[in-house]
Description:
The protein has 292 residues and is mainly alpha-helical. It has twelve helices and no strands.
Amino acid sequence: MPEPTGVIHDIGYQRYTGPRLGRRAVFGALYLHGLRTAFGLGRSAKAKIFPWLVVAIVSVVAAGITAVRSQVGETVMTYAQFADNMSWLVIFFVAVVAPELVSRDLRSGVLPLYFSRPLPRSDYPLAKLLALATALWLLLGGPQLLMFLGAAFTTGDGMRGVWNELLDLLPGLLYAGLWAVVFASVGLLVASLTGKRAFAAGGVVAVFLMTTPVVGTLSIMPSRTVNELAFLASPSTLVQGVGDWALGDLLPEGQGGILIGDFGPVYAVAAVLLVAGCVALLMLRYRKVAAR
């Protein structure tokens, strides 16, 4: 009987004996990866061009506002108005970043790897949504902080002036957060419907821009009630309506505010329902994807 010739080689593989990270660590890693992806960090130079171009634009605008204010001694634009005026850039930022966050994974078919334990089905879209909302808030809030620092160092009222400036900044940051949450919810839901980034980007732009003519049409109807409720028809004007109701003094009529009459609470409820509906549909979307 021939002797066995097989040999088992020890090539150094060892059993993992370290700590096993659970759901929280996986969620955090997905969130951090999504936030880095939003700004092109850890990716090619081409992926960094657009997000950092947008960052440069909003920063230059904020620096210009700060410089003018330091010269004339008057507020050129409030923090809330800054968020309103930069919202058109946010739309295109979402249109580019949202497909990068979700469409690539759909097309490459890596979702079964993500959905292996210990990651529940809902954590993936929630981590992506939180990452996009954070990126948008930083995009609008960072320049506001730059404006605040410039105003704080040039105020002539000492600490009292700095405190008053801070009281103006905080509502502006909250308003930027509202823009971020609404735009991230709508944009990520639209992008999650297709694995083709071009289609996803076009869909995001269409949702935000093609609803604007509807607002314009309703706002010139003979009914005053219809005029005041017209801004519910578009996510952008919906956010502005909430801002007009909550931050009326910081968004004066003719300088960023819109006419919503006494329907401010209606706009606030509509914004909450829009975000909740988008999140619910996003969860349903990924539950169906995982079931395939």
